[in-house]
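Table S5 (text form). Sequence records supplied for joint modeling of the two-component complex.
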Amino acid sequence: MRQKFHQVIEAIDDRTGLHTGLRKFLYEEIPASSGWHQVFGSVALFLILIQFFTGIILAFNYAPTPGEAYNSLRYILTEVTAGRLMRGLHHWGASMIIVVVVLHMVQVFLWGAYKKPREGTWIAGVVLLLLTLAYGLTGYLLPWDNRAYWGTVVTTQIGATVPLAGPYVTQLLASAGGIGAVTFARFFALHVLLLPPATLLLIALHVYLVRRHGVAPALEDELKPKKSFYPEQVFKDTVAVFIAFAILFIMAIAVRVPLERVADPTDTSYIPRPEWYFLFLFQTLKVFEGPLEVVGTVVLPTLAILALIAAPFIDRSRLVRVRQRTLAIGIVVLAGLGWAGLTAAAIRSTPPQTAAALIDFSGPTQWMQLTPAQLNGVGFYRQEKCGECHNVTGGTPKQGPNLLGAARRHDDAWLIAHFKQPSGAAMPPVHLTDAQLKDLVALIKVMTPDNGDVIDTAPDFAVEGAMLYQKSFCGGCHAVNGEGGKMGPALNGLATRRTEAWVVEHFENPRKMSPGTPMPAYPFARPDMQNMVSYLFTLPDKAP
Amino acid sequence: MSDHFPSATNSVETAGYTRRSWHLAAIYVLGAIMGLALAIPTILYLFIPPRQRRRSQWIDAGDVSQLTPGSPVEMSFQEGRIDGWRVITEKKTAWVVKEANNQIVAFGPQCTHLGCAYHWDNGSKKFACPCHSSFFSIEGQVLAGPAPRPLDRYATRIENNRLQIGQLKRSASA
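The corresponding structure-token record, covering 718 residues in total, follows.
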């Protein structure tokens, strides 16, 4: 049996050379000092392959046009089995590649492994780092939510400030009149058609050069015999790859990547923010204003890239032990501190995103369809702890009856009477006013097996906002989701018409903001005002 | 060499061999775990049908009070179909037959052989498929040709003389 197997292998090898080639690749001799510090290249390669794989898998259910992109991603996240996992792997894998590639670079830099004759390997690596960042920039737009849209608006506008080349960048990205279908197509083409083959070619060149020059030896290697790449170093690489994969997998499951509201070019309250690894650049931009802006957007990044490329030509010193490379260690520490400081400053100085902007649209959003009265009912449902004794959808049976069944059997009047004087002995009376009970009944009456989860999924700010809305009788003049008065304007789509700041000021001083309005002032206290405005900004653009 | 220092070399070789096989085992086990962690979700992703959204059960297809037994009519209706992330409205048709006992039957418009659109041949009083010459009776039974089973039927119900069409049910093989 074993002999047969070897015969087959040999026969294939005679014709293709695959086996000999593989052996040659695996039994490469490496210096005795090789070990755990050299695993990062393999991890980076592995993570790139994971990105290719998950990217293809996502593309199986993804429509690369604006609008459709958003809907299809939402479909992947909410309806396709394991879709959220695949998207999580792709999303967090992108971040992880940046981390690992930088660690790889730092290791090579500290050990001085870029020195003559390995300059070419290093430069190919620098270009691969830039490609990795290009993936991040182009992939950022593809979900086509507000975060994607507004982040890319900033990116393309930075591209436009490049001296001389600016107009051509704008032309190439088709971003002159804002971002739309053409820019989206360009970003998609770059992300999935241009960058992957370019990456593969450069990786091939990079690995070829590593093999051509051999793994860089350390000073102490001169007299020691070489060792084999396989299996000892491959074992170390595999362990490192496994640790990286385990972290990635756990993040993909445990850390939910939200999908924000669909890209809305009219949303004036959105605060764009780049991916975490670009925050330091974002912060650098704030230092340079006016005519100096180009220093932050172009000059400094270009200088940094040139410095990286030039590193092996500047550092032509003899090979020394890692611990004696004090200048190199100093540069890495300073760069790390600078990066961390800028990133921290960027995080600290960015105002928090509004609650309405942070709603995850890949989660349940049925509560947005409720009228203020029904959402007010959710508030009382929670306040009176109805859920301790009653179920709405399935789940373990509780003491009281399932409310979906109860709502079908009884009319409004019966329910209200029942709340005041419960027919069953186990239920305590509900102490609410008639108007409040009416809202609670409105909620119970609208629930179906499909939307029963609103009781758990409606965010607190929206429920608080709706309770305040009802308490203030806003519905007397305004309509929300098709219910309410016609004297004032309907409030659906408010987010596309006004900014949050405008609405706050309008509550405090209506006459100033819209002269001649009969609306009285509502100077709500700070948290109440925030809840109210956030709630109004989550309303669907059109009443359902 | 081993002739001179048999014991020493052997123990070093054995230690090296154990170490090597331990490394190999670890590479294969860790590789297999990662392979499975990717392969299983991928299979689920590709082969488990996505969670279905609810949709309306009955679609109005039109008035059937004027139908006469023995002469099938092709009726068309609009069906909202869920196509991945989209809901699209499609024009669909059914061959509607009023039976002798005034029961209404609606056949799916595709031949059960290879899905061609068949039609009612008034001369021979048969449903005839132009592709491979399958013939069906007015009850949908196969009379001739390669068709493997009778015509598929829609679930139907009548409300106020209007035909409402539900799911298409695959007929049992003859």
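Note: The interface with chain A takes residues 19-20, 23-24, 26-27, 30-31, 33-34, 37-38, 41-42, 44-46, 48, 50-51, 53-54, 84-86 of chain B (CB under 8 Å).
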